[in-house]
Write a structure and sequence with these properties.
By secondary structure, the protein is α/β, with parallel strands linked by helices. It is built from twelve helices and eleven strands. The protein has one domain: TIM Barrel (Alpha-Beta Barrel).
């Protein structure tokens, strides 16, 4: 083990109450995806200790540049793109745009051990029985809009080219399907999330391109629906009143919405689209833990009271709690290793309080 603090073992004392058809316990804790480790087995050990109910496979961006969330999808076309010379992201190698389209439409889509070592270490741990108490397992993948914004051809982002935007969506659907099939082999429900940090870049509702962009998300999720799978969308985009990100959630129709609730809690709970999502049974993964290196100054009771006040305005707070998951820090893979312990510890403190609310009238 590295020099950081030994992980705590978390036991959530709440009963497994079937508020949802897949019997997710209210307030269960899971992770967004990344952890700040290089060794995949160390990362999986932390997942086993901190997320025994809904474990996730760990992404390891510090392991290599190829292991970051965008680059993990490049297995089928890595030779056709290169780092952009004029900004962030990647550009298509000159003369290879047609070849890229062919790969997106036809190439086999799968994660690779060199890029996604945490996934394969997670599979090994599942086979070895390390997650016997899991009620579900979680996977994740960068979303099609974010990937399409990160790829450009001659300075033009592929997200603005309808044919390529749609092809990226279909490619990621195949990649997501491959991942879900692998995660489902142990007979547990699968939670699968698309990560869309670029939701904030979508034009305002009513803009000509808004519906076309969100349609890619909707179609991808629709193509993955099957019994035993809950589909989620996560964004770290900052929410504001009338947020495009919140309206996109409503249009794309995921089963679970995951967002940075430390920043956007009150905005989300006050938004009519978010309220409608909750009132119609949607699940929310509340990211109440901020992306800070040090969390020792945060009072879990004060955070819980803030959540309670915001949630009370939506519907009966017991109902909101029954549809709640809690996530540790978004972007944890970019923080110091000791931040893992404090982030999950705080998440579990919050989860225990929310679970108590959920069970108050059970």
């Amino acid at each position: 083990m590295p020099h950081h603090k030994t992980p705590e073992t978390y036991q959530q004392g709440q009963a497994l109450i079937c508020y949802h058809p897949l019997c997710l316990p209210p307030g269960a804790v899971t992770g967004i995806g990344s952890l700040p480790f290089r060794d995949p087995h160390t990362a999986v050990q932390w997942v086993a200790q901190t997320c025994p109910l809904i474990p996730f496979w760990p992404e390891l961006p510090r392991r290599s540049l190829h292991a970051r969330s965008v680059e993990q999808t490049f297995g089928a076309f890595a030779d056709l793109v290169r780092p952009s010379r004029t900004g962030s992201g990647y550009e298509v190698v000159p003369g290879q745009l047609v070849a890229l389209l062919e790969r997106l439409e036809q190439a086999p889509a799968r994660l690779e051990p060199a890029r996604s070592a945490g996934f394969f270490a997670f599979e090994q741990a599942m086979t070895a029985g390390r997650f016997a108490h899991a009620v579900a397992v979680k996977g994740q993948l960068i979303g099609p809009l974010t990937l399409a914004w990160q790829l450009s051809a001659e300075g033009i982002p592929l997200v603005t080219l309808p044919g390529y935007r749609a092809a990226i969506g279909r490619y990621l659907q195949r990649l997501a399907h491959w991942q879900i099939e692998r995660l489902a082999q142990w007979g547990k429900p699968v939670l699968f999330f698309l990560d869309e940090p670029c939701l904030a870049l979508i034009p305002s509702p009513g803009a000509p391109t808004n519906d076309a962009l969100v349609t890619v998300l909707h179609d991808l999720l629709a193509g993955l629906r099957r019994p035993g799978v809950l589909l989620g969308m996560h964004t770290c985009a900052r929410l504001s009143p009338g947020s495009v990100a919140i309206s996109a959630f409503g249009q794309a129709r995921p089963d679970i919405v995951s967002f940075d609730a430390y920043q956007g809690l009150e905005v989300f709970c006050a938004d009519p689209a978010a309220q409608d999502f909750l009132r119609t049974g949607g699940l929310v993964a509340w990211g109440l833990v901020p992306t800070w290196s040090r969390l020792d100054q945060l009072d879990p009771q004060a955070l819980f009271a803030r959540w309670l006040g915001a949630a009370t305005g939506v519907m009966a707070v017991e109902a909101v709690a029954r549809q709640a998951l809690i996530t540790a820090t978004c972007g944890l893979g970019l923080l110091p290793e000791p931040a893992v312990a404090s982030s999950f510890h705080l998440a579990h403190q919050l989860a225990q309080r929310i679970a108590q609310v959920a069970q108050a009238t059970a």
